[in-house]
From TrEMBL:
Organism: Campylobacter blaseri
Membrane topology category: Multi-pass membrane protein
Keywords, alphabetical: Acyltransferase, Cell inner membrane, Cell membrane, Lipoprotein, Membrane, Transferase, Transmembrane, Transmembrane helix
Family, as annotated: Belongs to the CN hydrolase family. Apolipoprotein N-acyltransferase subfamily.
Compartment annotation: Cell membrane
UniProt-recorded name of the protein: Apolipoprotein N-acyltransferase
UniProt GO BP: lipoprotein biosynthetic process
Length: 436
């Protein structure tokens, strides 16, 4: 009988094999490059340049084309860098909780989570399955959050930012791979991806003032600045009255108080509302719960509309209660989650029906159910500026505006306030640019 020999592989050799297989520089570089192509629209639209807007979707299409031929490891790295490029800014809010040291960890977590999501898509070698899974990413909401909508890659330029648009692009890529000698025929599918109609924007039939503030988050919640901020907000309202506006919109938490407990301030706002309708953001404290609310002052009366879509890990912890309590105690000084409304709210100004949205709600599909003509959205983007967060928020709002034909009047702190309307046909954008 021959003796049995055991060969032990040194730990160092095993690590070397692991590193060579999963952590090659080539895979990391390829993943980063494709992630950059798939994220280009977030950065290029910052310049508001007609040429850059035109080429943006083609860069993304090339990125998808290269992604489809990747192995699952490169898929992971693509998703890893996509997660970072789209959501690095989420970690910036930790600064205001004295948790800055956790910023790299939170950025890494976003990279790993979306890396794993892309890894699942790349685990199947069949390109059709990959296409279907990539299309579904936009409709997958881990912890009730997903601003990773790949249809946004077509928001600029000549294509339609929709499931039809992106699905047609994927059909083009698949047929380009499989037709071989007749690859050029695949271009037909790009015709189906084109934006062929434009929803006409609606505008409020009365003079509306969309105010803007640039208050740093470092002082916004400081009680020492409470009176200063209140006086500044009241001055904006007075200026709107002086300039003949019918309706004035102030940002989220323009009044950094529990407004329902501020009787004197409420009386002042009621008095001013006899001259102008006022919509402002503020907090509410009621029955041991706090709410993020919009307050409407009209004709001397007050109405309140609470937020119904809370920000995960910002306004609520979407985990079992015992874990929620632990996280709130450790990271948020024992603060409790916000309470939320059961659904969206609506109100009328001069018989015009308007749907209410507070920040995150303006980027959620539920808010646009029934395709309302008008939404008034208020935001505080001071938590994340300077970063690309306001631009990504704006892109998501414009995506839903295009999908539903809704006009959004958006008042913000920390970023610009504006009226957001459905995407115009690219040819009209070009002709408008030529006239300028």
């Amino acid at each position: 009988m021959l003796p049995i020999r055991f060969h032990l592989v040194p730990c160092k050799s095993f690590l070397e094999i692991l590193i060579r297989k999963y952590f090659t520089i080539n895979d990391i570089i390829n993943g980063f490059f494709i992630a950059l192509l798939l994220s280009n629209t977030i950065f290029l639209t910052l310049f508001d340049n007609i040429f850059l807007n035109f080429i943006s979707p083609f860069l993304a299409i090339y990125g998808f084309y290269k992604l489809f031929e990747f192995n699952k490891i490169k898929f992971f790295y693509t998703g890893f860098f996509v997660g970072i490029l789209w959501f690095y800014w989420v970690s910036f809010s930790l600064i205001y909780y004295n948790l800055s040291f956790l910023i790299p960890l939170e950025i890494l977590i976003f990279g790993i989570v979306y890396g794993l999501i892309f890894l699942i898509c790349g685990a199947f070698k069949n390109k059709l399955i990959r296409a279907i899974l990539l299309l579904s990413i936009s409709y997958f909401y881990p912890f009730n959050f997903n601003w990773l909508n790949l249809e946004l890659t077509l928001l600029s330029g000549i294509f339609e930012p929709s499931l039809r648009g992106l699905g047609s692009v994927f059909c083009f890529i698949l047929f380009f791979y499989y037709l071989k000698k007749y690859k050029y025929l695949a271009s037909i599918f790009l015709l189906f991806a084109l934006q062929i109609e434009e929803k006409e924007p609606n505008f409020l039939p009365f003079k509306t003032d969309i105010t803007n503030t640039q208050i740093s988050q470092f002082i916004k919640w400081d009680p020492a600045y409470k009176d200063l901020h209140i006086n500044e907000a009241l001055k904006m309202i007075d200026d709107s009255i002086k300039n003949g506006y019918k309706f004035v919109i102030l940002p989220e938490n323009a009044f950094v108080v529990y407004l329902n407990l501020e009787d004197e301030l409420i009386d002042v706002l009621k008095e001013k509302s006899n001259k102008i309708t006022i919509l402002t953001g503020a907090l509410t404290y009621e029955k041991d719960f706090q709410y993020n609310s919009s307050y409407l002052f009209k004709d001397g009366a007050i109405s309140r509309f609470d937020k119904f879509e809370l920000v995960p890990f910002g306004e609520e912890i979407p985990l079992p209660k015992f874990l929620t309590n632990i996280i709130n105690d450790i990271f948020f000084d024992g603060a409790m989650d916000f309470k939320k409304a059961k659904s969206y709210s609506e109100y009328e100004v001069d018989t015009i029906l308007i749907r209410n949205a507070i920040c995150y709600e303006a980027t959620r599909a539920k808010t646009y159910e029934g395709s309302p003509k008008f939404i008034v959205a208020i935001s505080n983007n001071g938590w994340f500026t300077p970063s690309t967060e306001p631009n990504l928020q704006r892109m998501l709002i414009k995506y839903y505006s295009t999908k539903h034909g809704t006009t959004i009047y958006h008042s913000a702190n920390g970023s610009k306030s504006e009226v957001i309307t459905p995407k115009r046909l690219w040819i009209k954008e070009f002709l408008g640019f030529i006239k300028i």
